[in-house]
Design goal:
There is one protein chain. Helices cover about 80% and strands about 0% of the residues.
């Protein structure tokens, strides 16, 4: 009996202490800033337009280049962290992120700002894989690790809402560049506390970084994400076709190189692991579903209900709270409930919320959309945390960085697919409805058919009765698009629920490592 107790004590993972939990707080703040930079700039677009006078193409690049660079470099940065040290890479990224944020705040031209946003994407790509792989190094106990991953997920969801709220406050009092300075104190805190509370970890057997594979990875991801966003904005055209072709060719060369090298940048044998493969697929589709509502709810509040950006941010805050609650509750629930069933239940709850969005009306208040968003957030939050833990936990410890890079890349792809596919469906419905409902010979009709935002601006220049007619027609067409895309996303959520129960039910309650042999 005594021998059994001693053996059990030796096999029990060491519990994380005060240092690790403080380190988690530092990592969570870094993730919050990472997510904030994806959203905070949207509110500053009017001021940037009036100050730097970018062309429409330049304005799109100012907004999108950050996400492009993130998508292209996540796998590379995850692998680089395994080779040179995850803490070292994170701190280097923090230095670059803080420095470029200050420079970007005082950008003299649109071209200069585009360059700064690209560098911020490079720095941001070090954060997500490094923070996630460090969490798996710091928290060995399964229960503590689940709580830590839940906190990590919460930080990203909170950053998506905190960004517009803080950005709105700053923009009411300061110039547009002030939104970039939000990152500086957080990165300074990371650099001060990081060396004290974060451990270092690297793969001692890792070879040199394969720059050719890194370049192919970047070309593949940037090309595919560019193609998806181009289709969403302009439909299928030459740019999208060339981007897809280039991405597929680069991707094929990348895969071939990984299969033939003795020390590949990304060990594709990870995809032979059943839990890794299934969890990654569920995570990608869940992100796709998330964009099914997040992409349109903010527009619904501001453009259909005519709420201010600050009021819209407040209306979206409950969904952020829902993500935090769901992320923190999931590790406790999964101790007693199999991950497959918790994911399935979460996706069903999200599907209910998405179904509620199909009942939104032009003259309704924000309550229905707020409640629907809260249900969706409560349903999706456990899914993101559980699948992320399964993805990284399925991989050998020395490949945690690469696995977390794959996880984050999958999330970027899922988001881009959501924007592209759901955005294209919504835009097609919007334009088709307006083809028959706009007054004949309307000035600016082509602009009205572009987006609801353009329609609101054109309506403001028309006589009151004509402007009101245009607004009602545009908002009705937009709501129709929301109904259809929310319905598509709801079906996707139900399919994920079925997939999770069918493919992950072998993973027992309280065990999210996934194993290395599935």
């Amino acid at each position: 009996m005594d021998t059994a107790l001693v053996t059990a004590a030796r096999e029990r993972p060491e519990l994380a202490g005060r240092r690790e939990w403080i380190g988690l707080g530092v990592l969570a703040l870094a993730c919050l800033v990472y997510a904030m930079d994806l959203t905070v700039l949207h509110l500053a677009v009017p001021q940037i337009s009036s100050t730097l006078h970018p062309s429409s193409a330049q304005l799109l690049w100012i907004i999108d280049v950050y996400g492009f660079m993130l998508a292209g470099l996540l796998i590379t940065m995850g692998t680089l962290g395994d080779r040179i040290g995850r803490r070292r890479l994170l701190l280097a990224g923090g230095v670059l992120f803080g420095t470029v944020s200050v420079v970007a705040a005082f950008s003299p031209t649109a071209e200069f700002l585009i360059g700064c946003r690209a560098l911020l994407g490079v720095a941001g790509a070090t954060i997500a894989p490094s923070t996630l792989s460090l969490i798996f190094t710091m928290f060995r106990d399964p229960r503590q690790r689940s709580l830590a991953v839940g906190t990590w997920v919460s930080a990203f969801s909170a950053g998506g809402v905190v960004g517009p709220l803080l950005g709105g406050v700053l923009l009411e009092r300061f110039w547009w560049g002030s939104v970039f300075l939000l990152a500086v104190p957080v990165m300074a805190l990371l650099l001060v506390l990081g060396p004290r509370v974060l451990p270092e970890f690297r793969d001692p057997e890792a070879g040199r970084l394969d720059l050719t594979s890194a370049a192919l990875s970047v070309v593949t991801m940037v090309s595919l994400v560019l193609a998806m966003k181009t289709v969403a904005q302009d439909g299928l055209g030459p740019v999208a076709v060339v981007a897809v072709a280039g991405g597929l060719v680069a991707g094929a060369l990348f895969v071939r190189r990984q299969l033939t090298r003795p020390d590949p940048m990304l060990d594709l044998r990870l995809f032979r692991l059943g839990a890794f493969r299934t969890a990654l697929g569920i995570n990608v589709i869940a992100i796709f579903v998330a964009f099914g509502y997040f992409l349109f709810v903010a527009q619904y509040f501001q453009l259909a209900l005519d709420m201010t950006p600050m009021a819209a941010g407040v209306a979206m805050a409950p969904s952020s709270v829902g993500f935090i609650i769901g992320s923190q509750a999931a590790p406790r629930i999964v101790r007693a409930v199999r991950p497959a069933y918790l994911i399935g239940a979460g996706m069903v709850l999200a599907a209910i919320g998405l179904a509620m969005l199909t009942r939104l009306t032009v003259d309704g208040g924000p309550v229905a959309a707020v409640v629907a968003s809260l249900l969706i957030a409560l349903g999706l939050a456990p899914v993101f945390g559980i699948t992320t833990e399964l993805i990284v936990g399925s991989a050998p410890p020395e490949q945690a960085g690469a696995a977390s890079g794959v996880s984050e890349t999958g999330a970027e792809l899922g988001g881009a697919l959501g924007i592209s596919i759901l955005g294209s469906i919504s835009l097609a419905i919007y334009r088709a409805d307006l083809a028959d409902s706009l007054p004949h010979g309307l000035p600016g009709a082509d602009a009205v058919r572009e987006t609801l935002g353009e329609a609101v601006q054109v309506a403001a220049t028309l006589p009151d009765n004509v402007g009101a007619t245009v607004l009602v027609a545009a908002r009705t067409a937009f709501i129709h698009g929301v109904h259809v895309t929310a319905g598509v996303a709801a079906v996707g959520a139900l399919l994920v629920a079925v997939l999770a129960v069918a493919r992950l039910r072998h993973v027992p309650a309280g065990e999210l490592s996934g194993g290395h042999d599935h």
